[in-house]
Structure formats: C-alpha cells, structure tokens
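Customer escalation, tier 2.

The customer says the design service returned an amino acid string that "doesn't look like it belongs to this structure." They asked us to rerun it and document both sides in this ticket. The original structure tokens are below, unchanged.
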C-alpha cells in the first residue's frame, strides 16, 4: 500500500477529506460525501470499495447534492441511508462555544460531547473547515464588533465583550478588526485604505487595501460610483496612483479576471464569524463550478441557514477572489449579485470556457503521451 501524500495544489481541507477516504475513517461519515468521476458513484468516506485516485474525486456536503450532480448512490456503503448526525454534534459544539463567556479548552469541549479531543478536532474541522479554537476566536471577535457598535465607550465595549484585561482586549481587537477599537467604532476614521481603479474585460475594477491585504474588490462601469460605494464602507478611503504593492495587486486581479491566471494575494476579510465561514466556503468552490445556497449552507454545517448564507454572500466586499458569483438558486438560475446579474453571468461564462479548454488540453496531452509510449 502506498503512503498518503498531499499534492502541493490541494487545499488543506480537501487533503483532510481525502485522508479520511484513504483511511476509511468512520468518524468522517456524515461530514461529507465523495463522488468518483470515472464511475459516476458516490460514497461515504468509510466505504470499503477500492480507493479512488484523488484527481477523480468530487466532494459534496450532502447525499442530495451528489445526486443533483449526477452521481448515483454506492450499493456497498449505501450513502443515502440514515447515518449518525455528525452535523448535529458539530452544531452542539458551536452552541457550547457561543454560550460560554470564557474560553473553553478542546479537552473541556470533548468531555461535554463524550469523545476524545483528537476525534472532536478532526470531526469539527472536516465539517466546518476551521478548528474549534479558530471558531472560538472568531466568536469573540464578533462580540467585540457588536459591543463597539452599540456601546457608548470602548471601555464599556471591552467588558460587554467578556474581557477583563484591557491589554488582551486591544490585542484581540486590533488583530481581528484590522484597526484600533476607537477607529472601528468611528467607521474607520483615521485608518488609511488605499485604492486604485483599472480597466478589465468586465469594465472597471476597484481594488482597495488596508494594512493587512486587499479588503475590497468592486466591479462596475462607472469609476465615480465605485469610489462612492467604497467610501460608504471606508470613510477614509484614499485614491492613490503611486503605490508599488497596490499596483502589483491590481495587475494580478486584472490578469485573474481577464486570463484566469492563478493569484496569491493577502485578503483582509472583515465580517462576522458566520460571514467569514460562508466566504471561506465560497473560496473552496472550484472555478467553472456552482453551488446552490442550500449546498453552501450545508457545507458550513448550517443547513437551515439558507437565507443567512444569501445575506452573507450579498455582504461580500471582495468580488472574484471570494467568488460569490459561483452561487445560484435552487432552480439553477442566477439571482441577485451585488455587482449585477449580467456581470455574474459573464464571470461564470468565462470560467466555464476556461474549464472546458483546460479539460480538452489535458485530454490531448494524455493521448499524445499514450501514443509516445
């Protein structure tokens, strides 16, 4: 038996999922399902059938999603039969973290749900894409944001968010908000946000950046409207023309839009823990593919939060790189899009064409290699 190895281009979550398939991990059953492109069959992670090649594997949040994609249920592991509700367990852990005013250790959470810390960590990450610790940190950041928006002073917000130490509060707030608490309370006043606007195949693209990375990418036709929209969210946004780093990011974004080139730039996501879970799930949808709002809700372990998922997509400020355009209605049709349904249609068409072209290219390469053998 060959050893498990993670390809460089594979995401860490998909690597965890494939490892669960490779090890036939029963603990992963119910957290996801996988289909095999060469057989058209989908299975549970623990299925005892022959291990598939990872390039042929497609992942799904539910059995229904796999069936909608055209896969049929495996007769060996019967993935459509009732399984232990792992998602309910994960939801219970999330509820424990949400209700706690102090930090709960992994060991304490594991005792509450009756499993080992290692197993809980694995199940939670497979289902949500983040660790229990990361989820807890994000929830605390949420409390900071809510408190700063609703209270009269930063000191009062500190206590309302559950912090007893001002040093700890400021450290967490600065790291999670991307700015000092007072600046966040004043809608970003005094915090520089640089932006530039460039032409692309879709019209105009505005790229804005804070100290930690790109915080907004807007699409449109009118430069004035793009800039005005940015200032509604970032009161201190400043247009710049000479900024080497921002210029490099703008060129990378334009190349990504126009030619589908890969892009590695830091992103400064600013949202609630739920919104960021949705946005991170969006980033895991491959180019040229779509998901329904229901599938996206299931993918983050919140199958009933379809409306909230739609709202999170609508509040996404970083178009293209956080690809909310890859989400469609349950009927497969394109519905609302912050930058217009027509732009959404164009983006999906571009990605579909590139995916088809890449598939044909790979097939030609395989046929050529086979002839040369």
């Amino acid at each position: 038996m060959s050893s498990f190895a993670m390809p460089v281009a594979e995401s860490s979550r998909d690597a965890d999922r494939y490892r669960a398939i490779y090890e036939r991990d029963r603990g992963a059953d119910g957290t996801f399902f996988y289909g095999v492109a060469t057989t058209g069959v989908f299975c549970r992670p623990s299925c005892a059938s022959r291990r598939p090649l990872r390039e042929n594997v497609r992942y799904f949040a539910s059995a229904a999603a796999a069936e909608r994609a055209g896969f049929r249920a495996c007769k060996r592991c019967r993935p459509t039969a009732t399984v232990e509700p792992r998602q309910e367990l994960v939801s219970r852990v999330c509820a424990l973290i949400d209700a706690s005013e102090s930090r709960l250790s992994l060991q304490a959470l594991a005792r509450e749900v009756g499993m080992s810390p290692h197993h809980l960590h694995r199940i939670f990450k497979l289902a949500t894409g983040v660790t229990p610790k990361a989820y807890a940190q994000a929830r605390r950041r949420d409390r900071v944001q809510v408190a700063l928006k609703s209270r009269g002073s930063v000191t009062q917000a500190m206590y309302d968010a559950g912090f007893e130490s001002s040093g700890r509060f400021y450290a967490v707030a600065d790291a999670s908000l991307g700015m000092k608490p007072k600046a966040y309370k004043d809608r970003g006043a005094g915090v520089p946000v640089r932006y530039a606007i460039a032409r692309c195949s879709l019209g105009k693209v505005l790229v804005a950046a804070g100290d930690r990375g790109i915080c907004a990418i807007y699409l449109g036709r009118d430069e004035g409207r793009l800039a005005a929209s940015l200032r509604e969210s970032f009161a201190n946004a400043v247009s710049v023309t000479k900024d080497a780093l921002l210029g490099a990011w703008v060129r990378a974004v334009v190349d990504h839009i126009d030619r589908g080139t890969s892009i590695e730039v830091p992103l400064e996501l600013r949202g609630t823990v739920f919104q960021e879970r949705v946005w991170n799930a969006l980033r895991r949808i491959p180019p040229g593919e779509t998901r329904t709002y229901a599938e996206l809700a299931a993918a983050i372990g919140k199958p009933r939060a379809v409306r909230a998922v739609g709202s999170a997509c609508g509040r996404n400020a970083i178009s293209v790189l956080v690809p909310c355009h890859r989400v469609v209605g349950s009927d497969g049709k394109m519905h609302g899009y912050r930058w217009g349904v027509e732009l959404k249609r164009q983006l999906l068409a571009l990605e579909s064409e590139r995916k088809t072209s890449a598939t044909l290219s790979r097939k030609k390469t395989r046929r050529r290699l086979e002839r040369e053998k």
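Tier 2 assessment: The sequence is consistent with the input. The longest strand covers residues 193-200. The two ends are 26 Å apart (CA to CA). Sent an explanation to the customer and offered a walkthrough call.
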